[in-house]
Batch of 2 targets.
Target 1
Amino acid sequence: MKSRLWILVKGELQRLNKYNMTFISILVAFLWGVMLFFVNAEILGTLLPLVILLDATMMSLMYVGSVMYFEKSEATISTMLVTPVSNAELLLSKLLANTLHNMGASALLIAVFVIIKDVQVEYLFIIIGIIIATASHTLLGIVMAYFSKDFTGVLMTVMVFSLTMMTPLILLMLNIIEGEVWEVVLLINPIQAAKEVISAGFTGYVFTYKYYLSLGYLLFGSLALYKFYALPRFQDYAIKNSGV
Amino acid sequence: MFKVENLKFRYPKNKEDTINGINFDIAKGEIFGFLGPSGAGKSTTQMIMIKILENFEGSIYYNDKDITKFSDEFYEDIGVSFEMPIHFTKMTAMENIDFFLKLYKNKGDVESLMKRVNLWEDRDKMVGEYSKGMKIRLNIVRALLNNPNMLFLDEPTNGLDPMNAMILKDMIREFRDNGGTVFITSHIMSDIDQLCDRVAFIVEGRIIEMDSPRNLKIKYGKRSMTLEYKENGETTKVEFPLDSIGKNKEFLNLLQTKEIETLHSGETTLEDIFIKVTGVQLKDEE
Ligand SMILES: Nc1ncnc2c1ncn2[C@@H]1O[C@H](COP(=O)(O)OP(=O)(O)OP(=O)(O)O)[C@@H](O)[C@H]1O
Ligand SMILES: [Mg+2]
């Protein structure tokens, strides 16, 4: 059972590579890297966490959305349904593989900047932050793919979601919205919560209840989303996209 | 082996039932065919039998056990090919097969299967570069790679050239001769006629008739002998009943005295019987 999950994860990763997603994500990371390389140290301090945030959230949604779209267009899910693999194994393997895959670029970026620009990070917290932010948004992306009819649909959903969610985040950052009430209320926005847990990985972050609130929200929110929505609706999704 | 009782099914968005209460059972070691026109509900029935479509009415048993009580282990035991061949197109045939093979406990002999369908030479080609017929053949390999006890084949010969269709039919027969059980759907009469031990005629989600092709021909068939002969430069065609033809004076007389051009025994085809029994044409005959 455990080894079958691993076979599935490996298969997903192999396909991500074959379908050029690995290349694209490394390319994107490289472009971010080039951009960050030329900004001064002070701006780098605020920009790097933001780039990591974008990579963990928006890009995760985008990648998993595209991957699920490719899968839809090949209708391979129906074949998976007639193997001894359970729906939970299928869904979990998608989540694991895509999370691993999406984390790769962020990890690479951070490693590079730690080495060449001497950026200070707290390894434990940056790892926790990236994992939880990426995993929760990958799951969100999977659920969004349930609703999208075609590739444009995937892109639209991701774009609309990201823009809607980024707006309050930016308003907060620019102090256009102010006050602790807003800071807490807006944690309901998963990207805002992700920002909190990722920021904790950079030296100088001040831990407050907001960190634990964000972490708990992303963790239990994802678990609930997985258990009560993503998994029960998987069969329906798979049948609809089995091309029969 | 497989038993379907009062099966009814409606797609969630539809107003009417697609399957309207059908009953049949498939014995172990039997090839059982579903013959019907497009839209009759053949694929739908197969999707229900392989536990993909749920929420049906009625009962279905596999080896005397309700199929809804089976876990995903059910799939260790069966092999399925869908109407459309389905693979990861950016991977080679062998990468596809290896991936699926790893998911089963029971592992068949891939090399001999691939050789059998003449794909061994092309095993390292991307499936995306395969022709339609090659994809269909690969589909069969996938359905057989876990050495299943029962096969479900949805229009397996559709899109195959006669040569490969024959190989495939041989494989299906061989599978049966080794104790396997087969459910097969088709709208191609000759496939069903050549392969099936029993056939069900399905129209609009109802089974209209069910028996062996041979019994159906005896029951509905008109057995006759048609003779064409030439006389004064003109061809005349006469038809005689096949029963006790050896004593038919007129027939014997013609044979002895005329210049015979053709002589055919006309058994009614399964397709003729299908049309006669159901009143429906089997469309898009290939
Ligand atoms: N996903 C679906 N949702 C709603 N209705 C469907 C769906 N799939 C099939 N149907 C309807 O159910 C009926 C039976 O379809 P089915 O695919 O089982 O026919 P079939 O006998 O396999 O035909 P064919 O020979 O063309 O493959 C058709 O009227 C079809 O429109
Ligand atoms: Mg069909």
Target 2
Amino acid sequence: MARYVMEFERPLAELEDKLAELSRLDMAALPELGAEIADLEREVEQLRETLYSALSPWEKVQVSRHPDRPKTVDYLEALFTDVVELCGDRAFGDDQAIVTALATIGEHRVMVIGHRKGRTTKENVARNFGSPHPEGFRKAERAMRTAAKFGLPVVTFLDTAGAAPGLEDEERGQAWAIAQCLATLSDLPVPVVVVGIGEGGSGGALAIGFGDRLIMLENAYYSVISPEMCAVILYKDAARAPESASALALTPDDLVRLGIADEIVPEPLGGAHRDPARVIADVGLRVESALASLAAVDPGDLTERRYERLRAIGVFSEESK
Amino acid sequence: MPINDWFRQRESRKYTVSTGTAADGLPDGVWRKCPDCGKTLYQGEVAKALSVCPHCGYHFELIARDRIEALVDEGSFGETDAGVGSVDPLRFAAAKPYSESLEKARATTGLSEAAVTGRAAIGGQAVAVGALDFRFIGASMGSAVGEKITRVFELALAERRGVVLVIASGGARMQEGMLSLMQMAKTAAAAERLARAGLPYVAVLVDPTYGGVTASFTALADVTFAEPGAHVGFAGPRLVEQTIRRSLPKGFQTAESLVDHGMVDEVVARGDLRDRVSTVLGYLMPPVAGGDA
Ligand SMILES: [Zn+2]
């Protein structure tokens, strides 16, 4: 099966392919090749190190979109037991782009809400590539209210390029659906732990994307606008996305610096898809630890603290008048 | 220019509140063309009619202060937080530097930011009001706009006032990155607190209102009015068109179609706005013990 190669990986992929080709040769017949192969192996290792150890913001965005990257469903399957999926917004339909489920992690019974990208093309078409329609946000909001009613903490997984921008999405009130999520989430009297696992595209991510703790994977991003769309607005050229990705301050490091994210989950060299099990397990431990530390907080204090946390975000000047 | 210098300069720049003056600030006596019916109109005549075309009812853009003056009881407006302004927290320098855009917007509008806020009375009822000025970087919401809108809700909560906002915006301000996106959550949280306290919030949507501003505090009002012909949505029409790969239906995302689709309560002409908002507040405002505005 042809593997997926990200644009910036191409030089490395070529060397790796060459190496694989050489290793298929009959070495007994070609003893003089041994040293060359060893050299090439060292070169590949070195290139891998330099290429992956300091990814640019735009390269991180590409890693966050890698098709083999672990998705919400992978976390749900690996970390949670006794999963009961809740379907539908009780008004229009069941949007496959968002999953909501009762689930148990360690000793915590929680409500999971996540953007749901597909693993295959067919799944992705059914799930609109993880871009929710209004009914998806209304389903999420329904799940939030159920969680509040029964005192279940909420754990969300962010992985969306953004809310769906179709004609019917507009007609069914996309903006209203997102806004209601924001309002409900802001005042939810249960702990809310958010994990940015891949793409964090604008309002569609934010709708389930803030709470009492924000954990970001090293190569996840969270942005006010996609780098491509930003480049189109700024330069009328989507190809200049690398520049806008740098300007937008969308990496986990930026988010910690701006007081938005709390912790960063390191990924294996090259990205989470190189060792999904390890990354998923690490996320599980961090979610459990966040839930444990929030469990003791009084619900009134929880919403008050969440408000203060939001209240503190922003940089502006003020002169008395 | 350093912020402090700019503020000093702003002091010396007299800004006049002039009810009914058109957005472009042209002096009376200038002719302007109505983009809808094409008739050439005398500026003074347009200004007297709250910048509404006397022939076809087209609503010209209004600056934020004029929006407020047209909405509240005469002389009741007292501005708050006028000193809140934007900085350039990310040193956003792609294409045009953000600091330059800010400087230009301040010079053109005489405002420190796109939001103008304060206390006022509408039909004698105490309100906290705000209006967004589209001339200021498309009235996009960054930290300062988010802060000012949040403070409107907090002021209303503290003083038991209703909130009335006149909203136009291109959305979240991308030059402040995630700080802007988070203002959506911040303003929505403030609106939710007001709602929990049983105090009313009336939104008036004007042309155009999009993106993160629609999808946050705007869409959380108890009662929503829109000016005739105002375009309101989440995704911009061009993006929607690219997504569906066919042309958009006539009237897409207009105030009138938003009423049809259940997102807006009523299309209200500018001249009727004060009365309609006042009537709504009469229903929704909690009784005040010996209250005054
Ligand atoms: Zn006209």
